[in-house]
């Protein structure tokens, strides 16, 4: 059994703490998995060694972008499902926004879109998360900083929580498995778990409200090193079990982008599968750059659908995946990537995005549609129906289509 009792040594308390910008030794054990005592709790999270990145899906009222879950928090649990809270009342700060505006403005900008309070008071929510949880993370203790300055640990906590959240695109992972927000469809707990475990590598705690509506996910980790600079390793959950029923789970769509948005970056999306009518008029021909959505145009249906993160065509409601367009050095083409990885036209002429793609293909834009090797024509063997996903090809198939870009 792992030994979880650790001692905060007198030498560390005397001032031999590490600075947040300095990496801890790489030979330290993972938190919760040590077999001997580790005295340096500035490089080893104790007692809260099981770190949970938790996410919300708020629909009543709707909060955050329609095509993304939002951050709930980063919580230290005691390796067994128990946890401490409000560990240092002297650090229950009441000016998180001001601290981040000065020390980590890009983190704050992201939080203003993706770390939202459903009641409209983001500052109060962030204060709660820091005071309740961050003050119980040992590596964020003031003693762990050389020449500590008050609030120095605040940007470290929020920046790490944001960076971890960005590696967990729950919406895209579920959508790739055909699990998308719907007012009518229901899903099983096993299907949701399988979709998330396939990417996270371990089970995820999946929570529903009293109406059987999906509303929260808990991803769990052990950490080698400090929370600030250490390596997060996915692990199986401890503590509370999922609260969703085995069947009949509702995954309701959000209505709008939330009622309390104070974002400094745009994260707009449609809540239906109809293609954007503004793509052609708002994005001129040339090299695309930045984030956007890819909509399918067959000129024969009123609900053509969009591309999900794997590069597949989907039409059964929900919202499209976010794609990133990166200009190539030739000045005339660009590459595409999604949360799954780079996008390429494979040897069988199919479009695919994922970790297995080593070299992204080059695309261009004619002012209305994407083009590949000079052609705006793409194909599919059939129009997808229900929960099926259609593969996009560049070689001739039964269905001819085009792909429109809509910038975020």
Automatic annotation (TrEMBL):
Keyword vocabulary terms for this entry: Cytoplasm, Disulfide bond, Endonuclease, Glycoprotein, Hydrolase, Lyase, Nuclease, Signal, Vacuole
Top-rank lineage group of the source organism: Eukaryota
Main localization (coarse): cytoplasm
Active-site residues, as the UniProt record annotates them: 72, 129, 133
UniProt GO molecular function: hydrolase activity; ribonuclease T2 activity; RNA binding
Signal peptide residue numbers: 1-19
Subcellular location: Cytoplasm; Vacuole lumen
EC number(s) from the headed UniProt entry: 4.6.1.19
GO biological process annotation, one example: RNA catabolic process
GO CC terms in record: extracellular region; vacuolar lumen
Function: Rnase which modulates cell survival under stress conditions. Released from the vacuole to the cytoplasm during stress to promote tRNA and rRNA cleavage and to activate separately a downstream pathway that promotes cell death. Involved in cell size, vacuolar morphology and growth at high temperatures and high salt concentration.
Family named by the database record: Belongs to the RNase T2 family.
Designated name of the protein: Ribonuclease T2-like
Protein source organism: Trichoderma asperellum (strain ATCC 204424 / CBS 433.97 / NBRC 101777)
Lineage start: Eukaryota, Fungi, Dikarya, Ascomycota, Pezizomycotina
């Amino acid at each position: 059994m792992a030994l979880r009792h650790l001692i905060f040594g007198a030498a560390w308390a005397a001032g031999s703490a590490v600075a947040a910008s300095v990496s801890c030794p790489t030979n330290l054990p993972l938190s919760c998995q040590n077999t001997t005592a580790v005295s340096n709790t500035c490089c080893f999270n104790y007692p809260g060694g099981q770190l949970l990145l938790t996410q919300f899906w708020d629909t009543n009222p709707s909060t955050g972008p329609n095509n993304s879950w939002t951050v709930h928090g980063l919580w230290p649990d005691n390796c067994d499902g128990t946890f401490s809270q409000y560990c240092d009342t002297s650090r229950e700060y009441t000016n998180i926004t001001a601290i981040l505006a000065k020390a980590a403005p890009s983190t704050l900008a992201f939080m203003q879109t993706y770390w939202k309070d459903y009641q409209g008071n983001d500052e109060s929510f962030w204060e709660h998360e820091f005071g309740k949880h961050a003050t119980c993370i040992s590596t964020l203790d003031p003693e762990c900083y050389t020449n500590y300055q008050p609030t120095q640990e605040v940007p470290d906590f929020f920046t790490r929580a944001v960076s971890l959240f960005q590696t967990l695109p729950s919406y895209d992972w579920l959508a790739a498995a055909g699990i998308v927000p719907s007012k009518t469809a229901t899903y099983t707990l096993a299907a949701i778990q399988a979709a998330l475990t396939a990417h996270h590598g371990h089970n995820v705690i999946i929570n529903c409200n009293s109406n059987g509506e999906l509303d929260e996910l808990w991803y769990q980790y052990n950490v080698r090193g400090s929370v600030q600079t250490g390596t997060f390793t996915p692990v199986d959950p401890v503590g509370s079990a999922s609260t969703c029923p085995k069947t009949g789970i509702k995954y309701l769509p959000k209505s709008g982008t939330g009622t309390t948005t104070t974002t400094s970056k745009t994260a707009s999306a449609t809540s239906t599968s109809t293609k954007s009518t503004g793509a052609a008029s708002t994005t001129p021909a040339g090299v695309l750059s930045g984030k956007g959505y890819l909509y399918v145009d067959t000129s024969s249906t009123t609900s053509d659908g969009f591309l999900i993160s794997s590069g597949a065509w989907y039409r059964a409601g929900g919202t499209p995946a976010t794609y990133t367009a990166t200009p190539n050095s030739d000045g005339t083409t660009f590459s595409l990537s999604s949360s799954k990885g780079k996008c390429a036209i494979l040897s069988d002429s199919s479009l695919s995005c994922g970790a297995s793609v080593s070299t992204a293909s080059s695309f261009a834009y004619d002012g209305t549609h994407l083009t590949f090797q000079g052609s705006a024509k793409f194909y599919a063997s059939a129009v997808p129906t229900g929960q099926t996903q259609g593969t996009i090809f560049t070689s001739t198939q039964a269905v001819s289509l085009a792909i429109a870009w809509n910038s975020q």
